[in-house]
Amino acid sequence: MNILDVQQAQLEYLAVLDRPAFPLWANVPGMMGGLYQAFEGLHSGLADLTLEGDGRDPLGRTIVVSLGEQGFFRVGYERVEAELPDYTEDELAAFPATLARGDRWLRTHWSAAVVQAHYLTLSIHGTLSEGSSADYLRSLSAIELGIGKSLGTGLIFHASLPTTGWDVHLTLDHSTVIEGGLFVQYVVTIGDDRIDHARTLDASFSFLNQGAESLGLEIGIGAVG
Q1: Alpha-carbon span 121 to 188, nearest angstrom
Q2: pLDDT truncated to tens, each residue of the chain (225 aa)?
Q3: Interatomic CA distance for residues 182 and 138, integer angstroms
Q4: How far apart are alpha carbons 164 and 56 in whole angstroms?
């Protein structure tokens, strides 16, 4: 089994709303006050709340809350996002509770809110215990461009999970930041309005481990480094 030693990792969450959140954005000070309270204990004060974008362009208008070790939380007209960069095991364990805080804020301040789809994206750069990314990718596919020496072909796998109804996408390619390293991107799409964030994250990582194992790869997706 080729073991991937994770050097850089980022976990992103996106909730796409089924309609623009006009009722929320009609009261921007109320939004900021609600977010301040929802994430109290994670941010360090009002300076960690930022209103970004041009008011003439609703799609680019967002409120960003800096959450210290829990990354960032963003609210737009059509989406809610969270980002957890280079996490430790403890920070990863706390992330579902952070997402739950955001979900409670959204549905408390806009009772008609409906999430059309949730997306979890895990992006990883790491080094392999056996060989380089070129060696590993060549072991998975013999397809070549037909010119020059093959450096290994990047692969994208797509699957629909019948037990959950989720769609998953797994990309394996050369890392652009670590020489000879492997880049892994894993995306889970969930077409439900409400989810249990802790169970969803656990199940998503479990499916990733199963898929990676079938490709002869073990990924350390807990702590980074």
Answers
A1: 7
A2: 899 999 999 999 999 999 999 999 999 999 999 999 999 999 999 999 999 887 677 777 899 999 998 999 999 999 999 999 988 888 999 999 999 999 999 999 999 999 999 999 999 999 999 999 989 998 888 777 677 777 778 899 999 999 899 999 999 999 999 999 999 999 999 999 999 999 999 999 999 999 999 999 998 765 333
A3: 12
A4: 40
At 78, list the tokens: 């059509």
User: In terms of pTM, does the model score above 0.85?
Assistant: yes
- Do 100 and 130 fall within a single domain? no
Owner of token pair 């208008």: 61
Among 78, 113, 148, residue at a domain's last position: 113
How many other C-beta atoms can be found within 10 angstroms of the C-beta atom of residue 165?
11
Q: Are strands 79-85 and 2-17 parallel, antiparallel or unpaired?
A: antiparallel
